[in-house]
Automatic annotation (TrEMBL):
SUPFAM superfamilies referenced in this protein's UniProt entry, alphabetically: Nucleotidylyl transferase
Keywords, sorted A to Z: Aminoacyl-tRNA synthetase, ATP-binding, Ligase, Nucleotide-binding, Protein biosynthesis
Domain Aminoacyl-tRNA synthetase class Ia residue range list: 38-300
Superkingdom of the organism of origin: Eukaryota
Database matches in Gene3D superfamilies: HUPs
Pfam families, alphabetized: tRNA-synt_1
One Gene Ontology biological process: leucyl-tRNA aminoacylation
Protein name in UniProt: leucine--tRNA ligase
Source organism of this protein record: Reticulomyxa filosa
Entry EC number(s): 6.1.1.4
A GO molecular-function descriptor: leucine-tRNA ligase activity
Family as reported in the entry's similarity comment: Belongs to the class-I aminoacyl-tRNA synthetase family.
């Protein structure tokens, strides 16, 4: 605080000092000192005071009503219990990939911070609490291992995941805790079960195939609750099998539009449907990839989206022109310029693969600059130069631009000479940059042996 004008900081300091004084201060009467917590205890014991609770600040419900604290019966999950906490902390510090040091630090802090959590309520939608059905399980507490359910949920929907199934072939009441134990914990199939043992075995195999959860993408505001609880509950259910615990979490900030918060009131608001109608799916995905990565709020720029439309059009024109001129380009041994160009491609492959592995999509977009390097320049070797560049473009941009850089386009344009002759693609294969790098190395090795 530098002056009396720092109202915000003074208010914050006042709140902290008042709170510390109330909980840990001393009352001085003449030469005597009395701790406030002892005074409180004495007054309550003699009936001169009552304990009450209130929120630290104003809390508003989703219906716009100010909340108060009510004393009700409550069940708690003992997050923070030493042994349980130790298992989760070890996983966070040694196993969990968070893609960002700040994110990992936040998880470490939250694992230490999270203690008893009220996990029940008396009304509303939710699962009945098994030991006390008059309560329902609070929503955050009831949504921590549903990813496991994803692996087998299609069996409940007659194979349809869009809700179009006319009936559910399996009844919820058939799935007792013993049945779920057989599916998720590989325990014996219970006797007198109405579900066929073959189906339970199939569901178990499907769960074992998909788990652990390799990646969960979520908002940074869920680190203090849902994501940390997800770790705790995986550690509880699969205590003896850490290989079933989440492998990585990627958390992002909120999204801005042209550096302003989204708001329907101000009109600064876009839905995914709106953006696709305005810019198309590929340009939208490019603008989102450019918006930013990590915990900071991402900025969706309308100018970038508009520019992406033009950039994709120019890129398509350049690729089509390059395809027409590939056969007319020079052949023969590599010149120094060819080697420099080929090396630039290889560096970009490594950097782009690393960027995707680290969930850094904006950095992955940097590969676009190679388009400019490959144009003009005195007719480089078609197949080994710009031809290779075009193939790499397809493989590296497919995760972002799945429309233009589609497999169908790859089949139409880039089934070219690779190891052993034409390389046929099918709908179950996506071109990979390491594969193309291997093609390049193999060809060069064959040329070296010939000479």
């Amino acid at each position: 605080v530098k002056s009396a004008q720092d109202v915000g900081k003074l208010e914050e300091i006042k709140d902290k000092v008042y709170k510390l004084g109330f909980n840990f201060g001393k009352l001085i009467v003449g030469p005597d000192e009395f701790e406030t917590k002892l005074i409180k205890k004495d007054m309550v014991s003699r009936g001169l005071a009552e304990l009450y609770w209130e929120p630290e600040g104003i809390v508003m419900s989703r219906t716009g009503v100010e909340c108060v604290v009510a004393a009700t019966d409550q069940y708690y999950l003992p997050y923070g219990e030493p042994e349980w906490q130790s298992l989760v902390m070890n996983h966070v510090q040694k196993v969990l990939q968070t893609y960002n040091p700040k994110t990992q630090s936040e998880f470490v802090y939250r694992v230490n911070w999270l203690k008893e959590w009220a996990c029940s309520r008396e009304f509303g939608l939710g699962t009945k609490l098994p030991m006390d059905p008059k309560f329902v399980i609070e929503s955050l507490s009831d949504s921590t291992i549903y990813m496991a359910f994803y692996t087998v949920c299609h069996h409940f929907l007659d194979g349809e995941l869009d809700g179009s199934a006319s009936k559910n072939p399996l009844k919820p009441e058939w799935f007792t805790p013993e049945v779920w134990d057989a599916i998720f914990l590989a325990k014996d199939v219970p006797k007198h079960c109405k579900i066929s043992p073959d189906l339970i075995t199939k569901m178990r195999k499907e769960f074992e195939y998909w788990y652990p959860m390799d990646l969960r993408v979520s908002g940074k505001d869920l680190i203090p609750n849902h994501l940390t609880m997800c770790l705790y509950n995986h550690a509880a259910i699969w205590k003896n099998d850490p290989n079933k615990w989440p492998v990585s979490f990627f958390t992002n900030g909120h999204i801005l539009i042209d550096k302003e918060k989204m708001s329907k009131q101000t009109g600064n608001f876009l839905t995914l449907f709106d953006t696709i109608q305005l810019y198309g799916a590929d340009a939208t995905r490019l603008a989102l990839a450019d918006a930013g990565d990590g915990l900071e709020d991402a900025n969706f720029s309308k100018d970038v989206a508009n520019a992406a439309v033009l950039k994709l059009t120019k890129l398509e024109t350049w690729m089509n022109d390059a395809i027409e001129t590939t056969k007319s380009q020079r052949e023969g041994s590599f010149t120094n310029l060819d080697k420099m160009f080929d090396n630039a491609i290889n560096i970009a492959i490594i950097e782009t693969d690393k960027a995707y592995a680290d969930m850094q999509f904006r950095h992955a977009l940097g590969f676009l600059i190679l388009k400019g390097r490959g144009r003009g320049g005195g007719g480089g070797r078609g197949e080994e130069g710009e031809g290779n560049l075009k193939k790499i473009h397809f493989s590296h941009f497919y995760p972002i631009s799945t429309g233009y850089f589609s497999l169908e386009n790859a089949k139409n344009y880039y089934v070219t000479h690779v190891v052993g002759g034409p390389h046929k693609l099918n709908n179950h294969m996506i071109i990979s940059a390491p594969l193309f790098a291997e093609f390049s190395r193999a060809k060069k090795e064959r040329e070296r042996k010939k000479t």
